[in-house]
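Case study.
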Amino acid sequence: MTAPVDDPAAARLPSGPGAARSGSDPAAAAARATEAILADTLHGPHRGVVVDSPPGAGKSTLVVRAALELAAAGRPLMVVAQTNAQVDDLVVRLAEQNPDLPVGRLHSSDTDAYDKALDELPNVRTSARAADLAGLDVVLSTAAKWAHVTVDEPWRHAIVDEAYQMRSDALLAVAGLFERALFVGDPGQLDPFSVVGAEQWAGLSYDPSASAVSTLLAHNPGLPQHRLPVSWRLPASAAPLVSDAFYPYTPFRSGTGHGERRLRFAVPSDGTGPDRVIDEAAQTGWGLLELPARHTPRTDPEAVRAVAAVVARMLARGGTTVSERSEEPAPLTADRIAVGTAHRDQAAAVKSALAELGVRDVTVDTANRLQGREFDVTVMLHPLSGRPDATAFHLETGRLCVLASRHRHACVVVCRAGVSELLDEHPSTEPVQLGVTVKFPDGWEAMMSTWAQWSEHRVPWRP
Amino acid sequence: MSLITTLARLEAVRSGRARPAATVRHRHLSERPLVFVPLTTAGEVGAPLGALVGTDRHAPRLLAVPQPRDRDLRFAFLAELADVVLPYIESFTADVEPAERTETDPSTGKRVKAEVELCTDAPQLIVPSRSGIDYVRLLGRSMRFRRTAEQDPDDPHPAPPRVPLLGRWLTHFAERARVPGSSMLLALTEVLARHWTTGQSALEDQHLGALLAWISPPEGLSGAEAALHAERARDAGGQLLCPPAGPATDPAFDNKLLAPAVERYDRARGALAAAEDGVQADGRLGALTAAEEEIRALVERCARPTWDRVWDGLDLLRTLPEAAHVPDRWTRDRWSFTAHRDRVLAGEPPQPRHDDAVTAAAKLAAREREQARLDAQEALDDPLVMAGRQLAGEAFAGEVVDVAMAYSEGRRPSPRPLVTVRTGDRPHLTGQTRVYRSLDSRPQSAECVAHEDGGEAGGTLIVLRLLDKMGRGKEPAPGSVPEKGDRVCFTLFEHEQRGGPKLPDPEDTPWTHGGPPGEAGAPEAPDPVTEEDLL
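After joint prediction, the assembly is written out as follows.
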């Protein structure tokens, strides 16, 4: 996160909160950054290139473009992504951009190992054996599958997608397959984790539980590091908050200006908490529905019902969105709304509460599974809502960042009052590990600064 | 903390007694464990004060260091410890059985079966608490790089002959203790807390006396009262009636009893050194011996209550029958023991200070696999553990209400029966979730086809398509498909773990991880001696 800035366009921007918002045309800045990345990837002398991408900055677009240019230059490459959904998505995008490109999708031998839509694409070959895909221009698979592949001759090029969510040991298992690689990822999202303790390796440059990028950079400090300076997803109302809270040293800006995106509702507010918070969010991009302070179990029934009520009212009030994508207002449908929680049981509780209200097709999931997804409006159950304590899990920066950066228009936060008191009572007390790069901001700081901002959009509600 | 643990803690508070958290014993207990109760000196890392160690609860071996900061006395302590621990370990190395192991043939690179030895049993070390395990690791770290006079004749402070070997073994025990489900080195508080849930916090459960007080409070006292008594009660001299389980000692003990006794010992030793003739020396030697005896008595007074409690705790654990998968995991411990025995016999150098990149990744992968295996096996062995998984939405149990025969498409249709289960659990099913049940100790998998509200009869109806373990024929093998009215239990987690990917050899470490580690020929040097090391 303290990356040296190689991109000349970004380097001119004065650092510090708010700085990234002013300045030249965002499209031009993004294009310059992309050109510099591609130049280093195709012609640079380094074995690796690292690209930091904030939420919605066009990471997948960059991966697809780099893959196409490498293939066009006659340099076959392998692409490593982290989940099957990510791989399938990249395959579809590659085929859209260049339907004639021979693409291989390496998959596991499980049933339903890949999206059956790929079978429709004429130049995409799928196989569970790497040998069947030899000679194709681009071969894509997950890190887990690549780890079982052996080759006589390594690929000359690789692209590693979501490299900050990849663990160092996963990179170790696949790094022998390629000579040079482009590593793309979002440093602000959830760090990889291990279900068993890995403290004994903390501070080692190759700590197997650390992220692939931190190991890569520890061993190759001279690699060029780029970053994408513009978020096309986040609206002008959200980019400054997310940038300041989660990317304080690598600020980014929104690709759209204030007023370019609008969210409206046909049915006027009935004056209840959910309706008022929906209107606040529609106007300002953020809304905080605050329930009375109380210690609750994780699946706090009142908070869960409040989340469901907000979603139900949003749909019932006939929302429409206007954005740079189309002239015509688009209806806000259930598939454009997501609910994010910290725990799976909370997601399950919200799902059943929504089902009781007759709401279907709204995505409800945990932060881990919402990574990389995009919606028009999100409703977030705050990780600290109703908790008696603030553990490292609930304070994790990446979790809050994922929940607060999935939306194109507005985000509603549902929470019990008392977060700032809770934070005051639970200062960060994680042990300091020698040799480990301290991550800024820490979760505590990010929680505090986002809470301060959201409090300005507070709508109190008594269930 | 899981929901079932929270419930058990609330029940324990209400009833005043610990609640069972398991119906069977999930850790192996050796017939002949070696109990080790170490004590350490405040203010200096890794300076042992003494220990009780042995396999006979009525005859522990008492070891004490009268001046813990004296390196010679510390080496004498470690040598004495080696005299107890190493013969115990070595008593397991000779009994072997033939076994098979797949190895990679170095010439062809193929996987081949190899005939190897496997020790029929392995040693088991029991320490009172988690910090005891850390202390074993620390002792191992402090000893394994030491050189004996034979290895390095120029060393001004050679270690006694068997001390480096003890360091290697203790390091192996402590490293093995990091593997989930391993039983080679157990902290009694952790094992007890796995099997009983008390009405106090997990932190308080680390106090062996308080934990035992909750599990079996004395007549007329509640668990909370007995635990408070164990933590707080002091005698007329201000000493704890239940000394901490160590290795750290109580400050009141250090200040009021230990420090004056060590000072008397130092004075007696100084006086002996200053003796002018044999008669005077004889008298002063007597005083020194008396001072030493006094410290030995103090160490025993401090460690003996813990020693007795450890054996009481083992008795409690032995009241539970052993879980079905425990021998399977103990066999892995035996493999680990045999492998380290072979490394020692082959004259390999001690374990390095830091793992290289490949070893670290391999260890982490192995431990994650063992954790998943342990979680699955504990649930399969123990209905109480499975109930916790059901509450967490990771498993469901219920009655089969309908079975409909169906077949797979394709040239040779195989049976894929649809089984409808009515359950009161609320599993986290999304899409076509895979679920598993245990069929004659083998996992049978199924996929969830649909789930809907159970209507008037309550619960949820889950439709599953069975996928395997039904034999090769067109009709499923008898007993492989549940019948209407059967009780079944499916889990969302897999029962068996797949092996991880093959990692590169350390000499092929890729550029992303710093390339191959440096030349591995020379053994690592012992820690350099600093000013602070010498009195």
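Observations recorded in class. The longest strand of chain A covers residues 407-416. Chain A has a mean pLDDT of 89. We will return to this complex in the next lecture.
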